[in-house]
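Quarterly update from the structural biology core.
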Amino acid sequence: MLRTLKILDNKLVGCSGYDASVFVYITPDENERKYLVEQLKIDEHTLASSLDPDEPSRLEFEPEHIAMIFKHPKHYAAQDEFLFKVLSAGVFIFSDRLVIVLSEDTALFEGKVFNKVASLLDISLKLIYRAISHFVEHLRAISQISGELEQQINISMENRYLFNLFTLEKSLVYYLNAIHSNSALISRLKSYASKIQLTQENIEFLDDISIENAQCLNQTEIFSQVLASLMDARASIISNNLNIRIKALTILTITIMLPTLIVSIFSMNVRIPLAPFYHAFWVIFIIAISSSLLVGLLWWRKKW
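Predicted structure, tokenized:
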């Protein structure tokens, strides 16, 4: 699918393909890929990297364009089951056009940062900024979800809530790798600012992007450490609760076993003491009950 836009009055607006300067290809089909490779001279491997979620962010210089791969979060849906995924996006900067390749449809140009765009390079940098903002939004959602799962774990013994927390922890690992990868891309953009012909305003904005990405990375690391510690603590608490229950059941079993043992001994089909005694039943009954009371008393005194 192809979307075409142009810069009009410092804003991005939809237009026909003839007037367009920004071309957004969403999951390009075979004909679109052929056009991008043969007509625009986009490297086939770089094009495939734009659609591969496992590809790292990078910056490459081609004879007719600049190729940039960056990471952005996938829009979360209910069917993802607490797994926040990361996707790649390709940006190919030509002298007269900007080509963006995505693996799925997403709202690329949301946010006030796109209220004013000056050039194709400006759009490219703001795409990275928007991706960082999207990561931050997802981090807030992960924090809120993990808090709700903690409350569920406190009142429920079901394993699925722990599995959900584990899935969130795995998501944060993916986010850490993606944000680290974007950080390397930002550093490379700053190093080649003169070659890319960034304006002073672009360079200042790139510094802001670098700061935002560093803060996002730091926040992700903190969330990941907290969630990992929380998982370890929950596992220890569950193990301790299990030991307490097993100990209680063991003492309860002993308490029940002692009267059974005493009654069994006096019930043997052999000559035993108290056989001719008229109140033997009540004597045996009192001994059996006393053994249970003795275990209960020891349990209370020893604070088992």
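The chain has two domains: 2-240, 249-302.
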